[in-house]
Design brief:
2 copies of one chain form a homodimer. Chain A has 173 residues and is of the alpha+beta class. Chain A has helices at residues 2-22, 69-77, 99-105, 148-151, 154-158; strands spanning 48-55, 61-67, 87-97, 110-124, 135-141, 144-145. Chain A has a single domain, classed as 3-Layer(bba) Sandwich (Chalcone isomerase). Chain A is 27% helix and 29% strand.
């Protein structure tokens, strides 16, 4: 009986591990980004879409902006400033021409997401991040956080958008 | 006591309606698309992102491709063909230059999602849609389904992608 209970325990534990792996898409990482101490929020890859964009220039990317439940609710209700607990994620992929799709369209018109570039997060905490407009900033590439020099550029760039609580992206219905 | 119970009932009912409205983003519609009889799947606007794309030409859009749980699981496991119950949504918005963002970047490099164009769905049902590769197709604009002529163009366009089970979009991590 003890052996069966033990075996059951192992099966349950293994199932737990497998379920965790299957249910943990996107990049996971235990390492916190500098300055703001933000780790990759678990499950962010399943968050709802705020909007999408294409940046030319040195970025040359396609991007999806996602929000956790708090952020999405605030967006849909038009609530500004965003409440504490809101997290906004920006996923960027390289901007590549799709040979597969262009064959169907008969012309080079289709651009799709290529390799992942990086993932950025804005975390709202009006107390903890009071000196940067209530937002903490983080950036990760393959699960590894960007350095302090990179993160110091976030706030000055977002600061002009005071009317939108420092958030560039508008919600797309 | 009866009056209080009745009033409570009204409050509960109204709260229910308000919660439903707040929790039902995206377009809702009771009208089914022709040929395949597909209605707008409830809650699709909360589905996880498969990928994003930009189509030039007559489309001139930015698009997000989302999947329901069945579709996302299949994508992440690399499972082909997609199992019955998988639904893939394609949301398209007009491709517009962002004056707001370009001011920050100091050059015209930022393109964002403008007005919604339409929403398309692919619904996997290998029995019901056996004659169209196991997929049913639908398109809606402001909740209203596209006509039969439009929907007749879906399958011939998707048909060449037999290796990918007729699905153009690849999953972006």
């Amino acid at each position: 009986m003890k052996t069966i209970a033990c075996l059951l325990g192992v099966v349950v534990a293994l199932t737990g591990v497998l379920c965790y792996m299957a249910g943990a898409p996107g990049y996971a990482g235990e390492e916190a980004a500098p300055i703001f101490g933000i780790k990759i929020p678990p499950g962010y890859r399943d968050w709802a879409v705020v909007s999408v964009a294409h940046e030319e220039g040195s970025n040359n990317d396609l991007r999806a902006v996602l929000g956790n439940d708090v952020a999405i609710k605030a967006y849909r209700e038009g609530r500004l400033p965003f409440p504490d607990g809101a997290i906004i994620a920006r996923l960027a992929w390289s901007y590549v021409s799709s040979e597969q799709n262009n064959k169907v369209f008969g012309r080079a018109q289709s651009f799709v997401a290529g390799a992942p570039i990086n993932v950025q997060f804005m975390v709202k905490n009006s107390v903890k991040y009071a000196t940067t407009g209530g937002w903490g900033f983080a950036q990760f590439k393959d699960g590894k956080p960007a350095d302090e020099t990179t993160l110091k550029t976030c706030f000055p760039c977002h600061e002009p958008f005071k009317a939108g609580d420092l958030v560039f992206t508008h919600y797309s219905p």
